[in-house]
Give the backbone structure.
Amino acid sequence: MLHSCRLSRAALVSMRGGGQPQRPPSSHRPDAVLSAWLLSRASLTAALTRLAAGDLHVELQRQYRRPLRPAERRLLPQAGRRAVLVRQVRLIGCGQDWVEATSLLPLPALHGWARHLAHIGTRPLGALLFRLRHLQRSEPSVVRTVTGCWHRHSLFRQGRGCPILVGETFLPALLHRLEQETP
């Protein structure tokens, strides 16, 4: 089920920070391996594909339009009060749920270079975004959810255009796999 790791109040407060990196308090920091994954600005899809030796696929959970919420408006001020396209997916590696991702694509962003993003279905959004060299990605903002999962979000934008917000929650099966991979 999507959203098995709900965002905490701290996560929502973090989202109000304008996309600036948020480091967890030292007593709640992830280990070095997980930190590297959470703070990486590289493609999570590519890294997960390598970790899964190619056995990674995207399961589209929901895609729908809705108005921006107040905390989201702070991160996506260029969208104004317009609606966003919400895309919720699960990244499944080696048959296990590894990541739940939610992307907010403001309708003003879905033109020009981004017009095809509303129709990508089960293709990974990250794979498409990282092919576009002209996009800039913000530093990830990292929080721990109330259920103990780690969540990060960052913005992708072209120049001064309306950004796309991508949030990714690292699920327990991925954390277990990362622990197994660490010598």
Q: What stands out?
A: Confidence is low (pLDDT under 50) at residues 1-27. Strands lie at 56-67, 83-93, 96-106, 135-137, 141-144, 150-158, 164-170.
